[in-house]
Design brief:
25% of the residues lie in helices and 23% in strands. It is an alpha+beta fold and 160 residues long.
Length: 160
């Protein structure tokens, strides 16, 4: 038997103001769209802003449904819109912000497992990493240079 050690390297910014200007702009877009999310059940709002290689910015927010599995996370809303409207344009960067209407969310909130798998599909498809920045309502911002840091043992089409 061998032991396999997996290491993820993430960068942590102490605040929004420390981010490069381009990322501040992208994160601001995610905050604006986050506050338009439809989340009457969880009261947990998430916004996603994707910067595409052609300069387009695609936005998404979470959309809940009384039948919980029928809703969709912000990340997948944005990714699927990008895939439908810009199918051959790589996603370069992704900014995510989350906010609870029940308490102040200070912890950077990464994508859920289903969203990580969806992001992985596009990162593998485009054969280029996607930089992912995520934050809570305020406070620290975490940067991952690739989805591989968040989902190191990715399941992709090579297994099929």
């Amino acid at each position: 038997m061998k032991e396999l050690e997996i290491k993820s390297v993430l960068q942590v910014y102490d605040s929004f103001d420390e981010l490069p200007e381009e990322i501040q702009n992208l994160m601001s877009e995610s905050i604006t769209i986050r506050d338009k999310a439809y989340a009457p059940y969880s009261e947990f709002l998430v916004g996603a802003a994707l910067l595409l290689e052609n300069g387009e910015v695609v936005l998404g927010n979470n959309q809940e449904n009384a039948c919980y599995p029928s809703g969709l996370c912000a990340e997948r809303t944005a990714i699927y819109y990008a895939g439908a409207n810009f199918p051959d344009v790589p996603i370069v960067k992704m900014a995510l912000s989350a906010r609870s209407l029940k308490y102040q969310l200070l912890t950077p909130t990464p994508p859920c497992g289903a969203c990580r798998q969806s992001i992985a599909e596009y990162e593998v498809k485009q054969d280029k990493p996607i930089e992912i920045y995520f934050m809570g309502e305020t406070g620290k911002v975490v940067k991952s240079s690739s989805l591989a840091n968040l989902l190191p043992l990715v399941f992709d089409n090579s297994y099929l």
